[in-house]
Amino acid sequence: MNDFEEIYHTYFRAVYLYVKSLAYNEQIAEEITSETFIKAMQSIDTFNGTCDIPVWLCQIAKNSYFSYLRKNNKMILVDELPEKIDTLNIERSMQEKETSMKIHQLIHALNEPYKEVFSLRIFSELSFKQIGALFQKSENWACVTYHRARKKSKRNGELKMKTNCSIIQDLLPLYKEEIVSPETKTLVEEHLQTCRSCQNELDEMTISEAIPMDINSYGLKKVKATLMKNKLTTVLFATMLAFICSIVIINVLTKPRPIPYSDTIVSITEQENGEILVHFSENVSGFQIDQSLVENKKGAIYSVTAWRTLGSQLLNKQATKTIVLNPNDEPVTSVYYVSENQINDVLLFGEKMIDNGGIVTLPRFFLTYYFLITATLSAILFLFILVTRKTKKIQTVIRYLFFAPLSYVLSTLCIKGVHFASLFAMRDLLLILLISVPIYVTCVLSFDYYRYFKQNRLSSSKQVI
């Protein structure tokens, strides 16, 4: 930021004077200059150094000014300007303000590129080398064009005006560059001998002091605000991506992988006091025990599930675990072992509940229904986006709504892949909802950046070079 502030302070005067020479309006010049530095700040990484920084800034300012004219329907075609302006006997037919306007009209009436070269040299105080680079021409071309502009401005009329401070001060830039007629030069010099104020004005032009810049000026505040917004957006985008990656990695490392039944994995023993103990081997990372009451009987059926995780496999084996099913001497009717990888649940202890068959614990499928619902809603909103593409405001609102179900769809794919059935559906649902928030924010930021990039590219394609 400090480097860009230095660029802002160093070249603000040149850019401001250049835009003012095009717009003849201080307020417009200030707005365009601020916009120029904002655009320069946003595209500073693309600056390859093939031209000087002030030339690059003036190119941006010129394109921004022409974009402003198009946007406000104020484009002035050079071909529509008069070739010559009759300025004879101005002192007898014009008042001071009208005469001052004629001076600007003499410059404004020049054809391109004479007018712009003249303005760059006089008002923006660029060197011939910088002017040539701005037009992608040589330094000699800029010098020749400038002197031709001088001759054209002389031929357009000779100024004979009353000697007063306002008129003399309008002539001082031309006098300083020695592009006035001998009669006008004599007139200015005679006035300078008797007017200390105009002499001081000329001295300030000669010294070419930089315009003092307030660090809290409107333009710099606007540049700082835009830069801060871009930084915060970048930080937020990077944070969301990091959060998404973290959740995905945690899910991969901690995702339960059910273990098929084996007596080396889980076993049950009954103590003399009636306690039922479940023993898990060191290969088990975690387990789950569900209890359900038996109708018309005293007692309960217990379902035991054991699993391992990738994280535990990468680490050392776990210690063996022993769990008491009925610490309060509850009656135990049956104990079954449940796994996704087996046809029927395995009876570990107690009586068989079905004489001619087995019990099967099915995985939960509601994640599949949620996925289908959100995918369908995403498709419907996408069709609305296509239908309303001519109504930008409505389309933008629908896009933000579209990202909500789309985020859930993407979150489900990140957590579950394409297999949505699960014995641990609640765990998976919580992870899906957790990761869907940063995915939604990432989608919104990506869309906003794409829209901003597209608008800038479209604006650049329309700019007048």
TrEMBL record:
<dbReference type="Pfam" id="PF13490">
    <property type="entry name" value="zf-HC2"/>
</dbReference>
<dbReference type="InterPro" id="IPR013324">
    <property type="entry name" value="RNA_pol_sigma_r3/r4-like"/>
</dbReference>
<dbReference type="GO" id="GO:0016987">
    <property type="term" value="F:sigma factor activity"/>
</dbReference>
<feature type="domain" description="RNA polymerase sigma-70 region 2">
    <location>
        <begin position="8"/>
        <end position="73"/>
    </location>
</feature>
<feature type="transmembrane region" description="Helical">
    <location>
        <begin position="400"/>
        <end position="423"/>
    </location>
</feature>
<comment type="similarity">
    <text>Belongs to the sigma-70 factor family. ECF subfamily.</text>
</comment>
<feature type="domain" description="RNA polymerase sigma factor 70 region 4 type 2">
    <location>
        <begin position="101"/>
        <end position="152"/>
    </location>
</feature>
<keyword id="KW-0812">Transmembrane</keyword>
<feature type="transmembrane region" description="Helical">
    <location>
        <begin position="367"/>
        <end position="388"/>
    </location>
</feature>
<keyword id="KW-0238">DNA-binding</keyword>
<keyword id="KW-0805">Transcription regulation</keyword>
<dbReference type="InterPro" id="IPR036388">
    <property type="entry name" value="WH-like_DNA-bd_sf"/>
</dbReference>
<dbReference type="InterPro" id="IPR013325">
    <property type="entry name" value="RNA_pol_sigma_r2"/>
</dbReference>
<keyword id="KW-1133">Transmembrane helix</keyword>
<dbReference type="InterPro" id="IPR039425">
    <property type="entry name" value="RNA_pol_sigma-70-like"/>
</dbReference>
<dbReference type="InterPro" id="IPR027383">
    <property type="entry name" value="Znf_put"/>
</dbReference>
<dbReference type="InterPro" id="IPR013249">
    <property type="entry name" value="RNA_pol_sigma70_r4_t2"/>
</dbReference>
<keyword id="KW-0472">Membrane</keyword>
<feature type="transmembrane region" description="Helical">
    <location>
        <begin position="232"/>
        <end position="253"/>
    </location>
</feature>
<keyword id="KW-0804">Transcription</keyword>
<feature type="domain" description="Putative zinc-finger">
    <location>
        <begin position="165"/>
        <end position="199"/>
    </location>
</feature>
<feature type="transmembrane region" description="Helical">
    <location>
        <begin position="429"/>
        <end position="450"/>
    </location>
</feature>
<protein>
    <recommendedName>
        <fullName>Sigma-70 family RNA polymerase sigma factor</fullName>
    </recommendedName>
</protein>
<dbReference type="GO" id="GO:0006352">
    <property type="term" value="P:DNA-templated transcription initiation"/>
</dbReference>
<dbReference type="InterPro" id="IPR007627">
    <property type="entry name" value="RNA_pol_sigma70_r2"/>
</dbReference>
<dbReference type="InterPro" id="IPR014284">
    <property type="entry name" value="RNA_pol_sigma-70_dom"/>
</dbReference>
<dbReference type="GO" id="GO:0003677">
    <property type="term" value="F:DNA binding"/>
</dbReference>
<dbReference type="Pfam" id="PF04542">
    <property type="entry name" value="Sigma70_r2"/>
</dbReference>
<dbReference type="Pfam" id="PF08281">
    <property type="entry name" value="Sigma70_r4_2"/>
</dbReference>
<keyword id="KW-0731">Sigma factor</keyword>
